## 1
Amino acid sequence: ALDPTASEFALEDIQDTFIKVVVGCTVGSIGWAVASDALGLDAGLRFAGTYLFAGIPIAILAIGSTAPGLLFVPVEALRAAAADEEQRRTRALRVCTHEASHLLCAYVLGLPVQEVVVDASGAPRVVVYDEELVQQPGQLVGAEQVEKLAVVAMSGLMAEADAYGKALGAAEDLKLLNSILLRCRPPIPAAKQQDTTRYAALMAWTLIKRHEAAFNAIVSALSEGKGLSECLSAAEAAEAEAAAASAVAAAAKAAAIAKETPQERAAREREEMAARGRL
């Protein structure tokens, strides 16, 4: 099921972990207070150690209420370090799938793609020029640009959801989409913003499916570390090959239809009508 708020961490797991942290810090602070007193340590050291233990849950709450993403940085780093080769390959392919959809939709819709860069973790990131521009302070978005930018913003979410059942990399895309809708001039009513989001999601999925050969070629190119021009060349070559194969298949079908007997033609037409839901 499509869940734009999905993450790799279930809410129950997060709650259980926080409870364990609270209990652990409570026990730790009490243990430190008793042990340091028994050992006759300096009162200031005992006080500082006890409150440092007890302050950990408060610090977690403070960070979680202001910048919750920071809490997952050490967890992600640990998971990345502990991941086996298969897990790393799967995560890398997921990122490539997400970014390939941005590149494909931007290219099809005529939005200029600035570059394909590699971030600190080695993952590719597609930089769409207009998306970067509309995030500048004071920059407004014309009504004629909104739908195209919305489609590109939603494409990563739809590609991940289609391939893996849920989208884990959607938070930044949804944040960008919200910024685009809020910066539109003339302003878009709330109901219209929801309609635009739905339209963008459907159109992004449609483009990915309509140009599936090009999309798969871009995913492969990104996974191989290729740049923007090579990705686009691979997409165009894949589209040309798919078009040629489709033409051959259509010609073969036309030739088979030409040789049909009346009975065979009637049976085929009934099957086609049944497939369309007319019978």
## 2
Amino acid sequence: MLTPPKRVRLRIVDSEAVRPHEVADPGRERRIEARLRSDGVLRDPLMVGSVPDIDGYVLLDGTNRRRALAAIGLRWALVQILDYADAHAVELRTWCHAAGRPLVEVVREAHTIPDIDITALHPLEASDALREPATLAVLLDHRQRFALRRTAMHCTPRPEQLRRLVDLYEDGMVREDCQLDEVEERAATAPAQLGGDRCLIAFPPFSRSQVLSMAMEEVLIPAGITRHVVTGGRALRVNVPLNLLSSERNLDEANLALETHLATLQPRSYQEPTVLYDS
């Protein structure tokens, strides 16, 4: 159903002012770069958050688009700006990962991650383990569950441990939207829904302050763990010509050109959930 368009704040900003909190995916970055060169437009803006008393923006979604723009020599980026201090503007969730590998293989190789203890869990303990501060992740399938907990004398930073873990299964991984209390149920149905001998990796939720700290300190976690959901409307298919993002003009001129471009469009909002099949 079509509804009147919601107000969104779109600006062209210097990419250097946009601070990522995730590691880029080189494969996706290359595909986006090829699409940019072919289409000559940036279809969707990066999603960024503003925080009082913090210079620049926290990059909430669009790490690969930001790097792809830089790879083709564009310094400016189109962004949708959200108030990251307002829980009503953007909701922070956590993805689960459905790995295309058997649980026993991932658990065996997870022993190579430094400063980690791996313990078996009883049925229904997964959600409790995910609420413990020391838990890095819970690995499970329809038969078994294991908690990866950081040791008391841990020296290895959590983001590095997460990167080491995701590296074990990233090829063929599928993101799953699941809540803490649903992970055991989702693990039981993952093989039937997604095919193959898959296991589920669930992560404790991050806070906004943790995301902000990672961005400011440039300590990056793997892509696809944090999930930011815009409650007031996500801007898509803006299709900004790439020449608007060239640093040959100043930002004021670029944003005036953006306003002219936006005036030619007819934005619309949909109440229905959206399913996207491209990457």
## 3
Amino acid sequence: MRTWHATGKEEGPSRIMRHLTKLLLGLVVLLQPWTAAAQQPPLAFGVLNQQSPALTAERWNPILHYTSTVSGVPLQLKMGRTVQETNSMMARGEFDFVFTNHNFQSEFDSLGFKVIARWAGEPIRAVIAVPADSPIQNLHQLAGKRVSFPSNEAFVAYAVPLVALKRAGVRVEEVFGGNQEGTLAQLKARRVEAGAVNSRFLGQYAEREHVQFREIYVSEGFPDLAVIAHPRVPAATVERVRRALLGMSSDTAAASILTLAKSKGFEAATDRDYDGVRRIYRLVGQ
């Protein structure tokens, strides 16, 4: 049945269908940018092996989900099974963004990565720690002892303490834990006399595992790890990701994510901020 209004215009099913068709076409046009973004393959976001893959995912997946949502740039966590494998992936260009400081070693420094941010908070320091009841009181008493390091490519947990040990004239038996957590686990189990780690992880591990350590060496401060972008990533895309990371600390929607990650967010950073990191790496031939 057709309906006629006072205007004399037909308001039947065919007219209603034409209105609905126009409305649907308009919605399709409006949704095209979001559809394209959803179909865009995610960019690989590499993370240095400081913790186990499970703990890394627990910390970083919420951060990357937030950053992807805010920036409109889909990001996906990617890392190798070991530090060496992750570094090799970086060298082969498998990451679009990376959270690391190993790029400042000589062999990676020419890859062209750009520093866009860094983990916020106090500077990181190298710490050599022993069990709280250990008789060892200073570096000289480590001579000939087993000391664990995350890997021989670590910056603050290998290159920095190695320079300190060399300056003290002390040689130790190097043992590798695979990552920060692995080194602290070796120290907790007393398979080594001392462990060299990033100051940020020492306190977190001790609190979580209910164990006490004592610091016998603490280095000067260095900027925390950087977020770097591969030169192939378009500048506009890099800027969107950078702004999303820097905005986390002031966004209430990110508060629970940062609490879970035990993070204050991210701070602005430049390549020149890491000249001191390069200097230490060069002192140990890296």
